[in-house]
Amino acid sequence: MAKPEFTADIRAGRLDKADIDNNFSDLHPPLSRAEALIAADRCYFCYDAPCTTACPTGIDIPGFIQKIRSDNIRGSAQTILRENIMGGMCARVCPTEILCEDACVRHTHEDKPVDIGLLQRYATDPIFENNTKLFERAQRSGRRVAVVGAGPAGLSCAHRLAMLGHDVVIYNRNSKPGGLNEYGIAAYKTVDNFAQREVDYILSIGGIEVRNNVALGADVTLAELRDQYDAVFLGIGLGAVNDLGISGADIVGVENAIDYIAALRQAADKGTLPVARRVLVVGGGMTAIDVAVQSKRLGAEQVLIAYRRGPKEMGASEFEQQLAQTNNVSILHWMTPVAVSKQDGTISVALARTRLGSDGRLTITDDVQTLQVDMVFKAIGQKLVDDGLQGVALQGGRIVVDDNFATALGRVWAGGDCVVGGEDLTVSAVQHGKVAAIAIDRSLRSG
Q: Where are the domains of the chain?
């Protein structure tokens, strides 16, 4: 993010430390033992549980809840983590309201679903707090695998490969591992440095080396990795931000939302981060909600989200949309920016009303209104940085893979947001990495 211009309308310290600490406390506080037992007792323990089917990693949800009922917390955590090694983070950030909890048979107009996400956190938190070892490495295979990217897909792949006895080297372009979990999630969703504690737990299995500040294309090539290792896994995410594509979009004060979120996550004192008095966020996904809510919780007076379609089309879940609104963030639907200009520190954004044409395509109308704001955040999605991907087939700006996440290039697999069909979900990336690791292991042992 470009360094903001400090003015009366963009400055740090809008709120005192006590208010900021309160605003960035745990969004979903953990359950007590009594609360967990009550929540677990609501589960019907379905035989063909739809919640398990809805979970991208296939966790046996009735199984881990049943173990909570019998106070077998270690066994419950093992049931979760053997399918999803990042089950602790997923318990905090996974959109359970549109996945497992939405599929829960108790989820009716008259009843609410079982609190699966909170129960998952109840089971896994003690494992990370006490560094309880649940998994051991198999005998060393003598094979080495390079994993590019230290986000959820890469870490999941590396952990499963290490379990299977392979040695892994992770190449990470950032200064800290964790990827999206470390840099791209709202601070109030993962407090107390949990992302790094989970990473430390994953690496503690052994056999995994992390090399930070090494970028594919700039510092190492895919050809070099294929020469040096028996297999390569690409979990590189989407490293570039989409442009607004309108005049004035490059002026100071029009910033990338993901960069601001990362700066906030890495700030030792959140009160030192400058926040605008009037903020406009362009986009409709989770990143848009995260940067909008965090701006409000840092003391912004007015925060607006402009989204070009209606609420049902937003990438952010209904819960996230409600979270924005309960934090006094206004969402302007069917609106898109068509021009940006700046004068005397104030940014003028021309917003045009949109509508669906008879052919179902979105059209921009001549109904335009102008907003005066102090900062604009772009949150309209990210795209693949394809530097260093020579020989890897791409489609629609993402990597093409088969059902086992193998690319068309020999001995190279890929997973996470960077592949065709990838989603902006930690849980999906974890599953990609796990499935790819199993496929890599099978390939190495048969070769």
A: 33-130, 144-239+384-446, 241-378
Q: What is the pLDDT of residue 220?
A: 96
For the chain, give the longest Cα–Cα distance.
67
State percent of the chain over pLDDT 90: 94
Token pair, residue 409, equals 């290039």
Which residue pairs, CB below 8 angstroms and at least 24 apart, start in 43-50? 43/114, 44/105, 44/106, 46/105, 50/103, 50/104, 50/105
Classify domain 144-239+384-446 at the CATH superfamily level.
FAD/NAD(P)-binding domain (3.50.50.60)
The whole-angstrom separation of Cα 435 and Cα 115 is 27
Mean pLDDT, residues 45-72: 97
> Do residues 130 and 173 make contact, with C-beta atoms less than 8 angstroms apart?
no
Q: Where are the alpha helices (DSSP H) in 164-221?
A: 180-183, 194-203
Residues contacting 428, CB < 8 A, separation 6+:
56, 416, 422
CA distance 232 to 148: 8
What was the pLDDT predicted at 7? 61
> Which of 117, 161, 170 is closest to 135 using CA atoms?
161
Amino acid at 35: E
- What is the token pair recorded at 406? 């193998």
Q: Give the model confidence (pLDDT) of 311-347 as tens digits.
A: 999 999 999 999 999 999 999 999 999 999 999 889 9
Instruction: Give DSSP secondary structure letters for 217-239.
Output: TTTB-HHHHHHHSSEEEE-----
Q: Pairing between strand 278-282 and 375-378?
A: parallel
pTM above 0.90, yes or no: yes
- Confidence at 357, pLDDT banded by 50, 70, 90: confident
Mean pLDDT in the chain? 95
pLDDT at 358: 83
Say which CATH class 33-130 falls into: mainly alpha
**Site of tokens 């795209």:** 383
Cα radius of gyration rounded to whole Å, the chain: 23
Q: How confident is the model at residue 360 (pLDDT cuts 50, 70, 90)?
A: confident
For residues 234 and 412, is the Cβ–Cβ distance under 8 A?
yes
Closest CA to 401 of 388, 418, 384: 418
